[in-house]
TrEMBL record:
GO function terms (MF aspect): isomerase activity
Gene transcribed to yield this protein: surA
Listed name of the protein: Chaperone SurA
Reaction catalysis annotation: [protein]-peptidylproline (omega=180) = [protein]-peptidylproline (omega=0)
EC number, as in UniProt: 5.2.1.8
Keywords (A to Z) from UniProt: Chaperone, Isomerase, Periplasm, Repeat, Rotamase, Signal
The record's note on its domains: The PPIase activity resides only in the second parvulin domain. The N-terminal region and the C-terminal tail are necessary and sufficient for the chaperone activity of SurA. The PPIase activity is dispensable for SurA to function as a chaperone. The N-terminal region and the C-terminal tail are also required for porin recognition.
Signal peptide as annotated in the record: 1-25
Cellular compartment(s): Periplasm
Highest taxon of the lineage: Bacteria
Principal EC category: isomerase
Pfam families reported in the protein's UniProt record: Rotamase, SurA_N
Keyword Repeat: yes
Organism of provenance: Lysobacter arenosi
Primary residence: periplasm
Length: 453
């Protein structure tokens, strides 16, 4: 997995194989031995010891030759187990709020992964087998990630808004600075309503980490892996490239005065204390051209609402699919049957648009089609769709799309903050019983001298 499918979905990459089944393993009684141990109980679900072992082995494989950057085994297990706990909680929350993923949607996602890696679905299956990964477990991992993606999308729609004034300010900032920044960070997290003692301990820890880095005893990435509480700790705290509108205003002025390799002093934020490293900068004009793939397509929508339940809508879409397979004209069927008033009169014509403009599920189905091909029924929040790909083109993002692009980046930054807060709340409310050996916290480094912070 780590070699061929580095771009696969996050849960699959993390765990390699993350079973969805809620195993009913029990504690050993008498002479009876369990088939598999339980690493943790998460509300009404469990994480098996084999799941944890596979996930840890995946991380060790990613750090082959760089094992010294990883924390001790027991600390690494704690970090990975915490990720698996969050996956379980998000999947359970998605299911509990009515988010669903069909087998067909999982198949489409796997086909997309295979296409990205330039292999066929069957070759993907064979590669998984050679790497010792169960195909059924891989499917379960993909299903989990799709559920989490939809939960996150629903959360964003209800919690995140971007005003016109924010977009105007970001466009003005971009006009004055075309730089992009490659950043990394280390987070020492604070709970909601942290006490003075908790704040003091966290501050001492972040100052100690900063001192280790300044003395050259540990590089920034290794310190992030060992000490950061951020979800991206195992990636060395890497935040990737950010433009000005994607960086909180509190950091923007700092970035402009820093040189590549510089690390900020500890910064107190809503989540805790952070160190931010400027890895490198580049002129946005020297970055890769903002080329995007646009799609031209038609669709037929059968809505799911109070009058039509999911099963009936899907059955109607399947009937229309059969008629199309028999030679029926797509545009005519759209005019007669589609429940999208904006496109029905045009035979379902949607014009030119980017992949995820109508949502990730619609986009994933579209990306798997050849020109002239019609999809199987696709479920979105609106209902069931049949999608016909008319054509594709590569186009440069012009000024007409600039506001939408900036709105997306600001929304993504806001979502990241809100989503992390939501995950902390979810974790705090959950019942989690860790059954494996209680992993020791990483030793807190000595606080840096007052003059060095």
């Amino acid at each position: 997995m780590k070699k061929l499918f580095a771009s696969a979905l996050a849960v699959a990459v993390l765990s390699g194989t993350l079973p969805l089944a809620t195993a009913t393993a029990q504690e050993p009684t008498g002479s009876v031995q369990p088939i598999d141990g339980i690493a943790a109980v998460v509300d009404e679900d469990v994480i098996l010891k084999t799941e944890l072992d596979r996930a840890v082995a995946n991380i060790l494989g990613q750090y082959a030759g760089r094992e010294a950057q990883l924390p001790p085994r027991e600390v690494l297990e704690r970090q990975v187990l915490e990720r698996l706990v969050l996956v379980k909680l998000q999947v359970a929350r998605a299911a509990g709020t009515g988010v669903r993923v069909t087998d067909q949607e999982v198949d489409q996602a796997i086909a997309g992964i295979a296409q990205q890696n330039r292999v066929s679905p069957e070759q993907l299956r064979q590669q998984l087998a050679r790497e010792g990964t169960s195909y059924n477990d891989f499917r379960s991992s993909i299903r989990d990630e799709l559920l989490i993606q939809r939960l996150r999308q629903r959360f964003a729609q209800s919690r995140v808004t971007v005003s016109d004034s924010e977009i105007d300010a970001a466009m003005a900032a971009q006009a004055n600075s075309g730089n992009q920044y490659h950043l990394a960070h280390i987070l020492v997290q604070l709970p909601e309503g942290a006490t003075a003692e908790q704040i003091a301990v966290a501050q001492k820890k972040i100052e100690g980490v900063k001192a280790l880095i300044e003395k050259g005893e540990m590089d920034f990435a290794a310190a992030a892996v060992r000490y950061s509480d951020s979800p991206n700790a195992l990636e060395g705290g890497d935040l990737g490239w950010r433009s000005v509108d994607e960086i909180p205003q509190a950091f923007t002025s700092m970035m402009r005065s820093m040189s590549p390799g510089d690390v900020t002093a500890p910064i107190r934020g809503p989540s805790g204390f952070q160190l931010v490293k400027l890895v490198e900068t580049r002129d946005a004009s020297q970055a890769a051209p903002a080329m995007v793939t646009q799609y031209q397509a038609r669709h037929i929508l059968i809505r799911v609402d109070d009058k039509t339940d999911d099963a009936k809508a899907k059955a109607k879409a399947a009937t229309l699919q059969a008629r199309l397979a028999g030679g029926a004209d797509f545009a005519l069927l759209a005019q007669e049957n589609s429940e999208d008033p904006s496109s029905r009169g045009k035979g379902g014509e949607l014009g030119w648009f980017t992949r995820d403009e109508f949502g990730p599920d619609f986009g994933a189905a579209l990306a798997g089609l050849q020109q002239g091909q019609v999809s199987a029924p696709v479920r979105t929040q609106a209902g069931w769709h049949l999608v016909k790909l008319e054509g594709t083109r590569e186009t440069n993002v012009g000024d007409s799309n600039r506001r939408a692009q900036i709105q997306e980046t600001i929304g993504r930054r806001k979502l990241e903050d809100e989503w992390n807060r939501y995950l902390r709340e979810m974790r705090g409310e959950a019942f989690v019983d860790v059954r494996v050996g209680k992993a020791a916290e990483p030793a807190t480094p000595a606080a840096a001298p007052a003059s060095g912070s």
